[in-house]
Write a structure and sequence with these properties.
By secondary structure, the chain is of the alpha/beta class. Helix content is 41%, strand content 18%. The chain is built from 19 helices and 17 strands. The strands form 3 sheets. Strands 1, 2, 3, 4, 5, 6, 7 and 8 form an 8-stranded mixed sheet that branches. Strands 9, 10, 11, 13, 15, 16 and 17 form a 7-stranded mixed sheet that branches. A two-stranded parallel ribbon has the order 12-14. A hairpin with a 2-residue loop joins strand 10 and strand 11.
Length: 526
């Protein structure tokens, strides 16, 4: 077996694991509950989305593994993503009623908050496909206080003239009633939608009043009496039809004219599976990745990737390219470690991108900034700070893909989650942590050994070995992509072969708002 085929085999195994985890999210509450839902003549959330979006268009699902590793169902009882409806890119959220009636748990909130952030940063209309029993009561202490942000986000979106549309297919109870209540447009399905602050049992307990679901919060009552429903749909498909017509009448216009013509990459994206080593300490050439992501030479005047400063700071590759006809500046880690030269090169490149209003793409494979006496004396801290300063204050949209390692301050310098990239995706080969598992365990061992010596005690070598083994295993697990994606630290783990398509969608989405760079940065320590 060759090294190349070994890389491919390892990546395919990771992709199979990813597919299995995605299948758990698609399965929702399980076959029994899905069948029960279908027996009532209702559609599942992804079925509703499929009918809502334009035929043949892509739906970019966000955070599909939210809640992974927790006590809650993978996917967090809600589907979020970006889809094209009547030619308009919209942020779509859909409750999954097969998972505890669509009740919201702490991971549901985190996932929806992230989706709302995407809508705000990219100026997207929001469509909510509502069927939720409200909060997961056993975890209400983690939901009630932060949950108010959901309603704040809806009203602020409306104030920004980013339309909000609610299609109500079933229960929308308690705080959930404010989703249709605070949306610009509300559609309710006859004899299915039930929207009330308090259901019949709560009303009975609170006031002694006897009321049935329909008179208290049914779709027809809200359409004829309360006025909460703007449209009364005959069934789910009719509600989706009405929702599409609402979007068609929004008179929506993008801020940018969109991409030019493009050619497919000069290198086959399938070859990405051969590039990433199983051992992330082994370097690989990011130019080979770039060649499989960017437009081919026939659409770019004979050069697919114009590399910037190719002979300086060679552990970081920078340059200009197009993806699906849209210009982009690329920063890609080459040999893992970032030195002072790489930091200074990145700082200048980010400034240039802002000068020309060009979005930036960060391709991570870094163990962080270089340490050691020579490098500290050479100014690695101030040079790393320059890079982080430039990236923190850059106002052009940033996209990040974690291909391999993303450790320490290198994660920050390469625009990790804390720096609010517009979108961040990871490959199944990715790992992110404060440092590598062996390094972290080794540091803890050195500190513990020094403490024992300072107290004049013998060091427990057997205990040290057990500690190192435990720490390495724990850090390894916590740095894996499924764990981090479950915490909504990225927008999804993706098959490397899908990266170009995903980036193309993201670059189209960011054009809903003007792309304007800045010339205002913090103080650079020179």
């Amino acid at each position: 077996m060759t090294v190349v085929s070994a890389h491919r085999e390892a990546m395919l195994a990771k992709i199979a694991e990813l597919d299995a985890e995605h299948a758990k999210a698609v399965a929702g509450g399980g076959e029994r509950y899905v069948e029960r839902h279908h027996a009532r003549g209702k559609l599942m959330p992804r079925e509703r989305i499929e009918l809502l979006v334009d035929e043949g268009s892509a739906f970019l699902e966000l955070s599909p593994l939210a809640g992974w590793g927790s006590d809650f169902t993978v996917g967090a009882s809600v589907v979020t993503g970006i889809g094209v409806v009547e030619g308009v890119e919209c942020l779509i959220t859909a409750n999954d009623p097969s998972v505890k009636g669509g009740a919201s748990n702490p991971w549901t909130l985190r996932k929806i908050f992230r989706a709302n952030q995407v809508a705000e940063e990219n100026g997207l209309p929001t469509i909510s496909l509502v069927e939720s029993g409200g909060a997961d009561l056993p975890t209400q202490k983690e939901i009630f206080i932060p949950g108010g942000r959901l309603f704040r986000d809806l009203t602020r979106a409306s104030a920004r003239k980013e339309p909000t549309i609610a299609l109500v297919f079933g229960n929308s109870t308690a705080g959930g009633a404010y989703v249709p209540g605070m949306s610009d447009y509300t559609v309710m399905v006859r004899e299915q939608a039930k929207v009330f602050l308090g259901g019949p049992p709560l009303v009975k307990m609170a006031t002694g009043e006897e009321a049935d679901d329909e008179s208290l919060g049914g779709a027809e009552m809200h359409a004829r009496t309360s006025g909460l429903a703007d449209y009364l749909a005959e069934d789910e498909r009719d509600a989706i039809r009405i929702g599409r017509r609402i979007v068609a009448r929004l008179n929506w216009r993008k801020a940018s004219a969109g991409g030019a013509g493009y050619a497919e990459p000069d290198a086959d994206p399938d070859g990405l599976l051969d590039l990433i080593p199983t051992d992330l300490k082994e370097p690989f050439d990011p130019r080979e990745v770039v060649a499989r992501l960017v437009d081919g030479v026939s659409a770019t005047n004979g050069v697919a990737f114009d590399e910037f400063k190719p002979l300086y700071g060679t552990s970081l590759v920078t340059g200009w390219a197009r993806i699906h006809g849209r210009p982009v500046g690329i920063l890609a880690n080459a040999q893992g470690v970032l030195f002072s030269e790489e930091a200074q090169k990145a700082t200048q490149f980010v400034q240039l991108a802002n000068q020309t209003d060009t979005p930036l793409l960060f391709l991570h494979n870094t163990t962080g900034y270089m340490v050691g006496q020579e490098y500290e004396q050479g100014g690695i801290i101030k040079h790393g700070a320059m890079m982080i300063n430039a990236i923190s204050n850059s106002t052009v949209p940033h996209l990040s893909v974690v291909m391999g390692a993303s450790y320490g301050a290198g994660n920050y310098g390469m625009n990790g989650r804390a720096f609010d990239p517009r979108f961040l995706f990871t490959w199944p080969s990715a790992k992110s942590a404060v440092m590598g598992p062996a390094q972290l365990a080794g540091v803890m061992s050195i500190v513990a050994r020094a403490a024992a010596e300072a107290k004049g005690r013998d060091y427990d070598e057997a205990g040290d070995a057990a500690m190192r083994e435990f720490v390495e295993a724990s850090i390894e697990e916590q740095s894996l992509p499924f764990f981090l994606s479950g915490m909504v630290y990225d927008d999804g783990v993706i098959d490397p072969r899908d990266t170009r398509t995903v980036l193309g969608i993201c670059l189209s989405v960011i054009e809903n708002k003007p792309i304007v760079g800045t010339d205002r940065f913090g103080v650079f320590r020179m």
